[in-house]
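Hi, here's the filled form for the chain we discussed.

Project: internal
Contact: R.S.
Residues: 503
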Amino acid sequence: MDSIPVVLQQTAARVPERPAIFFNDQTISYAQLAATVERVAAGLAKLGVGRGERVALLLPNCPQFVYAYIAAARLGAMAVPMNPILAPEEVAYIVEDSASKVLVAVERTAPLALAMGERCACVEHVVVAAEEIPEGALDFRALVVEDTSALPEPPGAEELACLQYTSGTTGRPRGAMLTHANLLADAAASAEAVHMAEGDVFLSVLPLFHVFGATVTMIIPITLGAASAHLPRFEPLAVLETIQRAGVTIFCGVPSMFAVLAALRGPQGPDLSTLRLCISGGAALPLDLTPIIEERYDTTLLEGYGPTEASPVVSCNRTRESRKTGSVGPPLPGLHVQIRDEEGREVKVGEIGEICAFGPTIMRGYWNDAEKTAAAIRDGWLYTGDLGHVDADGYIYIVDRKTDMIIVGGLNVYPREVEDVIRLLRQVRDVAVVGSTSKLCGETVAAFVELHERESLDQRQIIEHCSEYLARYKVPRSVRFLQELPRSATGKILKRELRARFG
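And the returned structure, exactly as it came back:
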């Protein structure tokens, strides 16, 4: 197997004039994409980026994301994609933990990037893609150098392509080390499972900083020679207009996106006749959404599943005819799934246990965290932390999460991280954070607060406090004050009881 930049070069040689990226009024061919990646790689090399180093990306979906991600990989370095709406403390942790040497931003994220450049000793260069370049930053256009003769040999398939940070149960992000082989294996298996092809046009509105978006709307199209239409953010009318303008055939999204679209479609609107397939992941898909989307948009909506550590897709329903209601489908070709008990033994068909996955898509481990790696990967099997069961046909059903992770619009929120922030308030005796069901977002963050005697706070004060420390999607939408949180005989807070009473 080759590496991602080599696959791009092969695709460009095979279909040089075929559109690779649609963005605003731009159409970028595969020949242009491959040439620009080489030039940006040469520019990064001039900044001192070499094999094994890290390039952090504070970018929305745009051509510069693709250029920088693959150019870093071309040098044998690793991309470190970051959510641009993270709080400064969160960004600083990722930048410093990864020891990123270069930070790439756009105009909107440039102030944050420059602040990180001042704060984080590891950052040597801040590069900004914008019309006007702020003081202290380098112009992205200056990276696109003509002379690529000094570029090193491309990396091998088993070298690391990116550090994909995902929050841990302790609330501190962990960098999943994903190789070129991991990502390309997942791309190939996903494309085979649902019959993606060279003639497809993907809608790239899932954020590329998330591995779901990167794999299915950046890497898969490159392997096929297909096109990808990029949108920097989810705006429903822009989505529908882009589907018509670009002739989009495949739309991968999270349930909250499909919930908005289900409420939007009327008798008039853009021509969406090219749209043949929608795939939902990142959170549980409400059962009532599928028939609505399929009827209103004359398409097929299939649900899949997978954690970041698996690059990420583990399973997916294949067709409308073969899917099973409530299931996330059978494993992808080449992947194996077992349901295991607390001792690591496989349970019987239909019994609930932890979902464990094995195959070529499983991460190398967590960056700088041997202990967490050993807990997550045992004898080559990834222990996902998700609870579920399989039926006699091998279809996987997600039952619950072993951890208390909350999924807001496809993004992970770990309760302890929010709880630690709320506990900074001196009035708070204890707090429990759980997920509250939301038809629009999948889940929202709900906080239950126990105050010290004779102390007072209101919901607004807690939300404002959290907003100073946390990304917006992690901030509680609701706060309830209880005289006493429900506890077990050993004093452990009973979060399941909170969900049952208030969820």
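Let me know if anything looks off before we file it.
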